[in-house]
Amino acid sequence: MSKIINLRTARKQATRAEKRAKNTENAARHARSKAARALEKAEAHRARAHLDSHKRET
Q1: Which of 23, 2, 3, 20 is nearest to 12 (CA)?
Q2: What pTM was computed for the model?
Q3: Domain interval for residue 14
Q4: Strands, E, within the chain: which ranges?
């Protein structure tokens, strides 16, 4: 005898699995490590400080 399946539950599980796969793909493509974010923040701060030091006082 075959197993009875609730189609609504199966559809929801399939949708969740699709979303999970899409999210892991996006995380792998776009996510940055904490060190990379800190490096970018430090570079932006250094560039801003460099520009500010070259401003003329009026």
Answers
A1: 20
A2: 0.50
A3: 7-53
A4: none
Whether residue 1 is contained in a domain is answered as no
pLDDT digits (tens, 9 = 90+) for 13-46: 999 999 999 999 998 888 888 899 899 999 999 9
- Token pair 């904490």 is at which residue? 34
Residue type, 33: S
CB contact set of 32 (below 8 Å; sequence gap of 6+): 40
Buried b (16+ CB within 10 A) or exposed e, 2-14: eeeeeeeeeeeee
CA angle 49, 44, 25 (to 5 degrees): 175
Residue 12 has pLDDT above 90, yes or no: yes
